[in-house]
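Example S7 (structure tokens).
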């Protein structure tokens, strides 16, 4: 990976120096952060210390865009991460071998149609469905107050050989948006479909053993044909001193199992949020509910988005401890993290800006599972009530400091009724710059 990354970077530099100056403009940018933080009691107890950690890490992102003219760009983004003291990049000597190519795509216009082709980033449904980098194409017709994007995300390539194409996994989405009322109202309906004739080669991240009925568990639970669809809408209302947003998504489809059985999927998600500004302060809040599976029938009713593992695809950050945050490494017991599923959560908070350089944000989160889990002999769903405090100070132009403290008054679904149960908490700082 290091050799590939260095070759890619060298090739870009050669291009930038060999094309005549009049023919191309080079744009450079980037982002850097260093975080120091500690996570304690994330297992809901203070005996095993299984998730306890205190560390420092650094992330660097470098951006290079070749602008040939107003209708053609070549966009590239690179990233390398290091935990201080690890043997990959952060040890003494610091000869890094971890170099990631995040994005590399062509961005061009053909009249009113824009196309982005290659490895790029994208978001659907605020991240409730998808927010990640991917290989594929986004083709968008731009009109007056209208945007009509079509997404093709190549999720998995089956390879070469007999029936190899059957193992391809593709995601298609259409997500038009309409600006109404002079920009005060934005409406964004969308549909998405994930399909494969034989998904067994990809093995998507979904725990069929936990998500199937006893009748289905008796059979081979490897999936074969996979057809999952989504239909939803985002609405944004923006006024002088207030804003409101809403999201609703329905999920359906079928998963054929190699053993001959079938799982019918029927799930949904609803979310609403808003903010009111009062000069130096605001009041903000949100609520979301995503269905879980009650195991009472053969349908699977927990909302989810198709991904290869628990770290890719769907990504919606919320609370610091239960839903990732600035220190997005681990989350407390039984929380879905940024993969919103089987949960209901509510938030109220405020951001105060005493000066142009200083902001103080206080948030309170309540969260519970939509469907109970067994804790000992009892059914429980309460994850807890979390309090998050973030102080941000602009040290100078481009450089800022964040100080974060978070504490979760844990419920039984987090502590699992452990005899040494303890509340999770986190403290940390982040120094970051962008250019």
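Recovered sequence:
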């Amino acid at each position: 990976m290091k050799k590939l990354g260095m070759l890619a970077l060298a090739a870009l530099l050669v291009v930038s120096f060999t094309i005549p100056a009049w023919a191309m403009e080079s744009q450079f940018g980037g982002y850097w952060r260093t975080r120091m933080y500690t996570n304690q009691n994330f297992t809901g107890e203070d005996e095993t210390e299984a998730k306890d950690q205190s560390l420092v890490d650094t992330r660097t992102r470098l951006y290079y865009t070749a602008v040939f003219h107003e209708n053609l760009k070549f966009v590239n983004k690179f990233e390398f991460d290091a935990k201080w003291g690890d043997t990959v990049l952060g040890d003494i000597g610091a000869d890094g071998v971890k170099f990631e190519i995040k994005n590399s795509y062509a961005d061009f216009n053909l009249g009113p149609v824009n196309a982005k082709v290659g490895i790029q980033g994208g978001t659907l449904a605020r991240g409730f469905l998808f927010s990640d980098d991917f290989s594929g194409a986004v083709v968008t017709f731009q009109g007056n107050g209208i945007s009509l994007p079509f997404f093709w995300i190549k999720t998995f390539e089956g390879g070469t050989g007999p029936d190899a194409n059957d193992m391809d996994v593709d995601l298609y989405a259409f997500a038009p948006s309409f600006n109404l009322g002079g920009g005060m109202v934005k409406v964004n309906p969308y549909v998405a479909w994930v399909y494969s004739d034989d998904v067994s080669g990809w093995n998507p991240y979904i725990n069929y053993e936990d998500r199937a009925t006893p009748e289905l568990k008796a059979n081979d639970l490897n999936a074969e044909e996979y057809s999952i669809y989504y239909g939803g809408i985002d609405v944004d209302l923006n006024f002088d001193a207030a804003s409101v947003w809403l999201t609703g998504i329905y999920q359906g489809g079928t998963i054929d199992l190699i053993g001959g059985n079938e799982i019918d999927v029927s799930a949904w998600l609803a979310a609403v949020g808003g903010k009111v500004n009062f000069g130096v302060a605001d009041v903000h809040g949100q609520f979301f509910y995503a269905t879980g599976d009650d195991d009472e029938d053969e349908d699977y009713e927990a909302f989810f988005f198709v991904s290869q593992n628990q770290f890719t695809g769907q990504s919606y950050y919320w609370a610091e401890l239960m839903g990732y945050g600035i220190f997005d490494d681990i989350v407390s017991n039984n929380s879905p993290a940024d993969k919103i599923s089987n949960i209901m959560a509510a938030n109220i908070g405020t951001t105060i800006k005493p000066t142009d350089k200083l902001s103080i944000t206080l948030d309170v989160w309540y969260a519970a599972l939509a469907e109970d889990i067994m804790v000992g002999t009892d059914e429980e769903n309460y994850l807890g009530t979390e309090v998050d405090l973030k102080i941000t100070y602009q040290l100078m132009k481009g450089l800022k400091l964040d100080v974060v403290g978070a504490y979760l008054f844990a419920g039984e679904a987090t502590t699992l009724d452990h005899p040494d149960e303890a509340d999770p908490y986190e403290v940390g700082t982040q120094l970051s710059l962008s250019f």
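Notes on this example. The chain is about 5% helix and 55% strand.
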